[in-house]
Each structure stands twice: as structure tokens, then as C-alpha cells.
Design goal:
Layout (H helix, E strand, L loop, with lengths): L10 H24 L1 H8 L3 H29 L1 H20 L8 H36 L4 H8 L2 H19 L4 H5 L3 H11 L8 H4 L4 H6 L2 H21 L5 H22 L7 H31 L2 H18 L3 H8 L3 H19 L5 H15 L2 H12 L6 H37 L1 H7 L5 E3 L2 E4 L4 H13 L4 H21 L1 H19 L8 H5 L10
Helix pairs in contact: 1-5, 1-7, 1-9, 1-14, 2-22, 3-4, 3-5, 3-20, 4-5, 4-9, 5-6, 5-20, 6-19, 7-15, 12-13, 12-20, 14-15, 14-19, 14-20, 14-23, 14-24, 15-18, 17-18, 17-19, 17-23, 17-24, 19-20, 20-21, 20-23, 22-23
């Protein structure tokens, strides 16, 4: 069987089925991002609260992909596809249960819970599908994983284009409610179910060789477990905080859960230290999730605020369409420029940093068009190429390493990227209004403070009042106070983008160090499981 057709006769159909599955996730993600403003205005949520809802759209992914990645070789791809399909339908039911009620705090909290849990279930479905699609494509096309994983993940920006366009047409144009818009992601959900139905799936290289679960986890080891469990501690701290009044108790329980899970990983791997290289890839992919998906969740809102909501939608569609086209070019770029996957990642991180800084200075649609093109070019190859590197270098782990990596990226996107950018928007916008007029800040300040990791609590701007300001600006009848608030909010968004750019800057340094490492061991190459099982690889970067 040729490389172009894969190792199985139905390789292309399975690739397209995986493409359609991730497309459904992209459509849902884009539509949800586009209706954040609807939720803020309808329910009165702050930016941090919206970021918290958005974070559930990432953290749930982690559970779906990691659990799915661990059991997929045992139970089979087909059963996981069925589970994902049912979760996608359930997420719609839960989300649609959110209603404004009487406008009181109880009704607001109830709506918040429905929206957040709906997001979480939706993300679980997406994660379960990627636990199928990523190792499946890596297995089907073993000689050119970077190319085909990029093609698989071209469906993500394609879904965002379709979702953003649908939101524009049916929301802004035809004035559909947010529930009608959101239901559109169920269309590609049905399609991927049909495409996967009745298909034969190949086994991963590790499963075909009979590698045990413990051996698959050995490269992850204690080091990799520290990354996973650290993010899970953050998740459970926030999750338990909604049920336990004492923050200290919630924190202690979260640390306890993280410690137990780390010990479990140690027992499974016989306390293997793990691969230092895989640990570095895990940490770096956490940064990928924060800057790529975390930013994607806010970029339409930010650019639409700096310019106009309509221009923000155009720019979101432009960057997503650019990503879609470029992801079909990974093999051409790699073969033409004779650059390794890590080299591509290093250049991309540099471009993403430049693009975010350029975007922070936009003043018109033309400059924004160019600035966001640079950012899109930078972020295009991050996610699928990172999965390809892990799959190339660690075949013994089967689906586990790339599933854990995907989970880490999504968990970071939710806990660090989405919430962090929401916090930054609240902090910087509040600071700018207070700097302009303390009395105005007192009038527009949100009652509930925003917090993020170790940073001080801040009070951003009230979501409902800010929504009224934006409506007045768009209608052209804003008073001086509303104009001042709007200008300060824009300055806050610009500062948020600059702060965000430090993440890809850090990634560029890491990728440069990896390039130097691979050069020291004779260059980047794909490792086969026979080499890994005999220990004849890596050297100083492996434990």
C-alpha cells in the first residue's frame, strides 16, 4: 500500500471521518465563541465568568482524550465513536436548558451551571473523538505523520470558518437565537457518525507488538505525570470550589487527588522516571494550548471590540481559512525547505509572537488583516506537528502519549489560556477606566472580583453595563461616559494581546533548544518501536 493511500484500504475514508469529527468540534467552538457576547448581555456575566464557561470547553476535553487514549486499544475505536456521538447530543440538551429566569442571582447561577456543564460535556465528546482520530491517522500513515496529522487538523479551522459564517448569517443576518445557532454543530456530528459506521480499524504499532499498558506509560513516567497531575489539581481546585465553601479545604482535596493520581501513574509504570524529552514536549504543548486555543476563544471578541463586531468576524474567518489552507502544505514546506518538524515549530512560535504584538497595534481593517495573517501563519502548525513529533519519537506509547499531550493542551487552554485572557481583559480594562476616571470605574465596576492563579484579585467591568455601552457605540448614540469606557476597554484588549505574546516567545526558546539537542544526536528522525524497545535511541535526553 502506498504512502498516499495509507496502510489500509479504507485509510482515506477513516481520515475523512476523523476530519469530519474534528470539524464538528470546530463548528461548535466557533459558534460558542461568537455567542459569548449574547451570554454576557443576556445573563450579565463578566469577562472572567465567560472565560470560566469557555474553560469548561477545554478542560472536559482532557478527560475525554486521556481516558479514551488509555482504553482505545482495549475496547476499540468504534465504541469510543458511539460514546462521543451520544455526548455531543447530550451537551446540546444541557446547554439549551439555560434560561435567563427572573434576572436574579439564583437564576444567573443556574444558567451559568447549565452553560458550563454543557461546555464540559461537549469538550468530553471532542476529546473522545481525538483519542480515536489522532492515533488512527498516525497508524494509517506512519511514514508521513506530520503531513497527514496536519490534514486531519485542517478540519478545526474549517469548522471555525463554517461556525463563524453560520453565526454571522443566522445570528446577525437572520436574528436566530443563540440556541438555534449552536444546534448547527449537530449536522457534522451526524456525518462523522455515518462515515465511521461499519468500518474496520487497524491496530497501533504498540498494540500490534503486544506492548503492555505499563510499558506504554513508561515514557510518560513520573515526569509526565507531574504535568498532567499539576493541571488536574488546578481543575479540581476550581471544580470543588463550586461545592465546598472553604477554599482551603477545596485546595487540599485537589492536591490530594493529584497526589493519588501521580502515585497511580508511578505504580503503573513501576515508578519509571520517564522521558525528559517527552516531559519537555508536554510542557510546551501546555503553552500551545494556552496561546492557540485560549486566544482563539477570545480573538474575535477582542478584534471586534477594537474595530467593529462585523470586522472581527471577517478577521476570524480570514485567519481560520488561512490555517485551513496552510495545513495541507506541511509536507511541501518540510520537503522544500529541508526543515524538521521542530524547525517548523520554532519559526511558527516566532511568527505567532510577532503577530500578536502587531495585532495589539491595529487601528484599521487593512493592518489587522496583515497582522492576523502573521499570527495565523504562526499558530497553524503548532498542534498537529507537536502530535507528530511525539508519535515519531515515542511509538512504544501507542495512543497514550499523543492523547495525553492533546489533553494537556486542552486543559491548559481552559485553565490558563481562556481564563487567563478573561482575567487579563478584566484587569487591564478596569485599570484603564480607573486611570481615566475613578468615579466612572466605580459606576461600571463588576461586583464579583476576577482571579487567576497567583495573581491578585481584580474587579473588571460589569458585563451587562459593558454590553449596553457597546450597543450605544454601534447605534451611534453613546454619551461621553460610555465613549470613555469603550476607549478604556479597547486599551485593555491591546494590553491583553501583548501579555499573550509572551507565551509563543517562550515556546520559540524551547524549540530552539530542542533543535540544538537533535543536532547534537545526529538530527531529527522517526523512531520505530523495535529501536525503542531495545533502548537504542535518544541518549542524554531520555531517562
Amino acid at each position: 500500500m502506498s504512502e498516499q493511500n495509507g496502510i489500509a484500504p479504507n485509510a482515506k475514508r477513516l481520515l475523512f471521518a476523523g476530519f469530519m469529527a474534528i470539524l464538528a468540534a470546530g463548528v461548535g467552538f466557533a459558534i460558542r465563541g461568537g455567542i459569548f457576547a449574547n451570554w454576557g448581555a443576556e445573563f450579565g456575566f463578566t469577562a472572567a465568568q465567560l472565560g470560566d464557561i469557555g474553560s469548561a470547553g477545554f478542560t472536559g476535553f482532557c478527560f475525554g482524550i486521556i481516558i479514551g487514549g488509555v482504553i482505545v486499544d482495549k475496547i476499540g475505536y468504534g465504541k469510543l465513536v458511539i460514546a462521543a456521538f451520544l455526548l455531543h447530543v447530550l451537551s446540546a440538551i444541557v446547554t439549551f436548558a439555560a434560561v435567563p429566569g427572573d434576572g436574579g442571582e439564583v437564576a444567573k447561577a443556574t444558567a451559568f451551571s447549565f452553560l458550563k456543564w454543557g461546555m464540559f460535556i461537549f469538550a468530553c465528546a471532542n476529546g473522545t473523538l481525538e483519542a480515536v482520530a489522532n492515533p488512527l491517522v498516525a497508524t494509517l500513515f506512519p511514514t508521513n505523520r506530520t503531513h497527514y496529522l496536519n490534514i486531519l487538523h485542517a478540519s478545526w479551522p474549517a469548522g471555525m470558518v463554517l461556525g463563524a459564517t453560520a453565526g454571522w448569517i443566522f445570528g446577525d443576518g437572520m436574528h436566530w437565537g443563540w440556541k438555534g445557532q449552536l444546534a448547527l454543530y449537530l449536522v457534522p456530528t451526524v456525518l462523522y457518525g455515518v462515515l465511521f459506521f461499519g468500518q474496520h480499524f487497524p491496530k497501533s504499532e504498540a498494540s500490534a507488538k503486544g506492548v503492555s499498558l505499563g510499558d506504554k506509560f513508561k515514557d510518560v513516567g513520573i515526569l509526565g505525570g507531574l504535568v498532567i497531575c499539576g493541571l488536574l489539581v488546578l481543575f479540581f481546585k476550581g471544580f470543588l470550589g463550586g461545592f465546598i465553601a472553604d477554599p482551603g479545604t477545596a485546595t487540599n482535596i485537589a492536591w490530594g487527588i493529584g497526589g493519588v493520581l501521580l502515585i497511580a501513574i508511578g505504580v503503573i509504570t513501576r515508578f519509571s522516571f520517564g522521558s525528559i524529552l517527552l516531559f519537555v514536549l508536554f510542557v510546551t504543548h501546555a503553552l500551545v494550548g494556552a496561546v492557540e486555543l485560549g486566544t482563539d476563544g477570545w480573538i474575535q471578541n477582542i478584534t471586534g471590540n477594537i474595530l467593529t463586531p462585523e470586522q472581527g468576524k471577517w478577521l476570524f474567518i480570514w485567519t481560520s481559512a488561512l490555517m485551513f489552507g496552510l495545513r495541507f502544505c506541511a509536507h511541501f514546506i518540510q520537503s522544500t525547505l529541508k526543515v524538521s518538524p521542530v524547525g517548523i515549530l520554532c519559526v511558527c512560535a516566532t511568527l505567532a509572537c510577532i503577530g500578536l504584538n502587531l495585532t495589539s497595534h491595529i487601528s484599521g481593517f487593512g493592518l489587522a488583516f496583515v497582522a492576523l495573517a502573521v499570527y495565523a501563519l504562526g499558530k497553524t502548525f503548532f498542534w498537529p506537528t507537536m502530535l507528530a513529533v511525539a508519535s515519531d519519537r515515542f511509538p512504544r506509547t501507542g495512543a497514550i502519549a499523543i492523547s495525553i499531550m492533546g489533553g494537556i493542551g486542552m486543559m491548559s487552554a481552559g485553565l490558563v489560556g481562556s481564563v487567563g485572557l478573561g482575567y487579563a481583559k478584566d484587569r487591564f480594562a478596569g485599570e484603564e477606566v480607573q486611570k481615566a476616571d475613578p468615579a466612572l470605574y466605580a459606576e461600571y465596576r463588576a461586583e464579583k472580583p476576577s482571579s487567576f492563579l497567583i495573581f491578585n484579585e481584580v474587579n473588571g467591568l460589569d458585563g451587562k453595563k459593558l454590553g449596553d455601552v457597546k450597543e450605544a457605540i454601534q447605534a451611534g448614540n453613546a454619551d461621553d461616559k460610555q465613549k470613555a469606557v469603550h476607549e478604556a476597554d479597547i486599551l485593555g484588549d491591546r494590553r491583553t494581546l501583548v501579555a499573550d505574546s509572551f507565551i509563543p516567545a517562550t515556546m520559540a526558546v524551547i524549540y530552539l533548544l530542542l533543535l540544538l539537542y537533535f543536532k547534537s544526536i545526529g538530527g531529527y528522525k522517526t523512531v520505530h518501536i523495535a529501536e525503542e524497545l531495545t533502548g537504542g535511541i535518544e541518549g542524554p535526553m531520555e531517562a
